[in-house]
Design a protein that fits this description.
about 350 residues, 7-stranded mixed beta sheet, 14 helices
């Protein structure tokens, strides 16, 4: 997932006074890099009750930045949650780690619960009200197992206007009762999103006892060796979803939403989809200065991508050389000399 800069969308966000609302649930570490180009225009809200690895957002990076030291819950009746603080802060969750399932993996130590605590909790709806925010434009959630239920707990008038979602569901049972990718994907597709990017993250499926067996037989077969050399298995994924054009067409969306979704598509290098958005914008609102500018930018990005990604055309000689084994080519050179 790469970042991109564009004077066009920076100008448009300024001219239209658009301040994207970016919600970051599970914000241990820095805000997502992909948000950097639009940060000066954006309202950033980060959540993480595990403060051991949280990083303060530098002053001035965002138009406005707020850190909320509370857990986000889908249960409107609960203002506190049990929170499992694990060996790795990045694995802490309101769900209990599924140690039986995790015992099949060498990274299971990261999920060892060092202590349990009770943390303040609130729904996204209540926090938005508290902060006087009426929308979420891009939701990034890494809640360790509760991403889908958190998204679905948002009131409909806010949830239906979310334009982009970054989500990190599991592919194996890391937590008891967690929302897995198979659940998340189907739900988001049914609710007007399409999968724009997917990074599958892997772990070594090998128990600690198997590692001890290997190490006792051959001392060099330690954890570093097997982690480096053995095949990994998919364990979780980082998925990005963007709202579909059909969903926009069927809803009550404004020029702001089209421009902002176009901006998000550009940030995610989805230049073809960005041009489709321009076409839909003109169908709905008519051609105007905005559509002409973003159309030109989309087409130029597509053109530059073609040049950037184009492979050199192979000559017949080059093609022939690629088909002849190197050893044979060396042998032929002994007998074939240029005239």
């Amino acid at each position: 997932m790469s970042k991109s800069n564009s004077p066009i969308f920076n100008d448009l966000l300024t001219e239209l006074e658009i301040h994207p609302v970016l919600i970051d649930i599970g914000s241990s570490g820095a805000p997502p890099e992909i948000w950097q180009p639009i940060a000066p225009h954006s309202v950033y809200v980060g959540f993480d009750p595990d403060l051991r690895e949280i990083h303060e957002v530098p002053d001035g990076r965002f138009h406005k930045a707020i850190t909320v030291n509370e857990a986000v819950t889908s249960d409107a009746q609960s203002d506190e949650l049990r929170f499992y603080l694990t060996k790795s802060p990045y694995c802490s969750s309101t769900l209990k780690p599924d140690l039986e399932s995790l015992s099949n993996f060498l990274f299971s130590d990261l999920f060892i619960v060092e202590r349990e605590t009770t943390v303040r909790a609130a729904t996204l709806d209540s926090i938005l009200d508290r902060l006087s925010l009426d929308r979420i434009d891009w939701l990034k959630t890494d809640s360790q197992g509760t991403d889908l239920r958190i998204f679905n707990s948002i009131r409909d008038e806010v949830r239906s206007r979310v334009l982009a979602i970054d989500i990190e569901p599991g592919l194996v049972d890391g937590y008891v009762g967690e929302d897995l990718f198979v659940d998340v994907h189907g739900d988001l597709i049914r609710n007007g999103f399409w999968l724009s990017d997917l990074n599958v993250c892997s772990a070594l499926r090998m128990s600690k006892s198997a590692l001890r067996e290997a190490t006792s037989a051959r001392r060099q077969l330690d954890q570093a060796f097997v982690e480096k050399n053995l095949k990994k298995t998919p364990a979780w994924c980082e998925a990005r979803y963007l709202r579909t054009i059909k969903s926009l067409a069927e809803g009550v969306y404004e020029r702001r939403d089209y421009v902002l979704l176009w901006t998000f598509a550009i940030l995610d290098n989805q230049f073809g989809f960005a041009l489709d958005l321009v076409i839909e914008y003109e169908r709905r609102f008519g051609q105007d200065d905005i559509s002409l500018r973003i159309k030109e930018d989309s087409i130029e990005r597509i053109r530059r991508s073609r040049v950037k990604n184009a492979q050199p055309r192979q000559t017949l000689k080059t093609r022939a050389k690629s088909l002849v084994p190197a050893r044979t080519r060396r042998w032929l050179k002994q007998y074939i000399r240029p005239e």
